[in-house]
Every structure is written in C-alpha cells, then in structure tokens.
Amino acid sequence: MKKCVAVLLPIYKNDSLEYFKLSLNSVFSQTFHNYKIFVGVDGEVPYATKTYLQEMDKRGDVEVCWFPKNRGLACVLNDLIAIAHVQGFDYLARMDADDVMLSSRLQKQMSYMESHKDIDVVGGAIEEMDKQSISRGKTIIYPLTHQECVNFFEKRNPLAHPAVLFRYSFFEKLKGAYRADHPKNQDTMLWLDGLMAGCKMANVPDVVLQFRVTNDLFRKRRNGWNLAMRQLADRLEVNRGLKYGVMSYLYAYATFLMQISPAWVKKLCYRYLR
C-alpha cells in the first residue's frame, strides 16, 4: 500500500502526558488507517513522558524523533516534514499534543483532497473543550472555499493550524516550510507564504478536532509588549503582501490592543468575538 498520511505531533517538556495520551489515542481511533505518527520531542521531557514515548516507539505506526535541544515548534515541524517526505508520505496532518481528533477527521479530509486535486491544504471546524476534556459548547467555523479563505485572512487566520492536512505540494510550491524565526506566529506566516506561492486552501464544514481551552491559554496567549509588536508587524506584512484594504489594518491594530490587555479582557474577546 502506498504511504499516505504522516501525522506530525510535536511535544515538549511542559505538555501534559495525560493530554498527550488522549491525543495519541484519538489518532489510533481513526476510521482512516493508512497513516504513521511522527512524534517530535523538542528537547528534554519528564521521565514519565520519556518512558511512555519509548514504549510507543516500539509500535509500527509510531516513530519518535528525539531532538536534544529545545528549538521551538517551527523547527520541529520542519524536521518532521523532511523526515516524512524522505519516507515517501504524500500527506501531512498537523496536531497539537493536547488536542483530540474526531475519529472521522483523516477520512473526511482525505476524501476532500481526493476529490479536490487543486487544493494544497485543507482544514476544518474545531470544537472547544475544557481541561477535563468536556465540550465548552462552542464550535469555530472556518471559510470553505479558497477565495473565502483569502478574504477571511484579512481579519484572522483562515485555517485552524492543528486541524490541517497538507498535500506535500504545498511545501513544493513554497520551496520551503515554516519560518523558524517566527516562534509565536509560524502558522500565520505559513499561510501568507503559501498564498504568495500560489497554494490553494480550503476547509471541510465538519468538526474535525477538539481544541483544548484553559485559563492558561489566556494568560500565556502571545502575551507581552514585544510579542504583540511582533505579531502586529507580521499582520502588517500579511496585509501588504496580499494587498488588503483599510479594514485589514483596523483589524490588525484592534488585535494588537487586545493582546496587550489583561487576561480577562482577552478571555472576553475570545469568547464573544472569535
């Protein structure tokens, strides 16, 4: 059977082992079976996590890639992309170490890709869950067609990064991968670089992933003046590169103000404006 989907799953020392096990088990429960999980270990991890990963590495459908130095998500993803490509995988699925795939995710996204040969990356809707893995009753819907994604990017990202499935053609067109010098905004810059390179994107209408939302998300979510300034600069680069209009700049500065606000303000904005 031709190698098909490489699931890219980075983990580092602060990731919860309990959540990571749930994430991994959600991949094992997929209705689509032609996959291999590439776990990228970003630096040193706790003993319990290391022991569990060593056990998982014995499975035929899991390959643990150990990176001794903590370098950040973008660097780990770039290495995993290269490793999977060398092994002949045609598709690359993203996932974070604390999220949960719905059992039909890969099946739905692969079916979409097979019937839309022009699409280079496909995402889907995501459902929020809390720290107990209980649904928060909120689903985030993303635009479906390529042009709708381009229009939506004027305000915010058109794809949920941990819910996407790439065709390898995305990176061939890009002639590269993630920008390693954008550790907190690598997804935004990847969508910009992809669109500038002629990549096509879309989303399936179905929920494909449960995304974990905790209070830590709002306390740590790209906090600080320097990070907010960097993200503002990135958004302005997006606006210039894709020739967006005045509204895109208003959204960029409004987002900047939200990011330098207290955690409770960010929480309200996330709840009612997302």
Automatic annotation (TrEMBL):
Keywords: Glycosyltransferase, Transferase. SUPFAM superfamilies: Nucleotide-diphospho-sugar transferases. This is Glycosyltransferase. It comes from the Bacteria. InterPro entries: Glyco_trans_2-like, Glycosyltransf_2, Nucleotide-diphossugar_trans. One of its GO terms (molecular function) is glycosyltransferase activity. Belongs to the glycosyltransferase 2 family. Residues 7-139 form the Glycosyltransferase 2-like domain.
